[in-house]
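Submission checklist for the structure archive. All mandatory fields must be present; incomplete records are returned to the submitter.

[x] Identifier: Polyphosphate kinase 2
[x] Organism: Glycomyces artemisiae
[x] Residue count: 37
[x] Sequence attached
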Amino acid sequence: VPERPAPRGYERPPQENQNYVPDHAARALAIAKGDRS
């Protein structure tokens, strides 16, 4: 495996700027099973 290349100036944005995306599929499955919480 080759060595990892040096960084080229990219900086990851702050985690505070990341948005939480609700898991609608899990909620729909829970409702289908009868768990409405």
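[x] Structure attached
Curator remark: The two ends are 48 Å apart (CA to CA). The longest helix spans residues 24-33.
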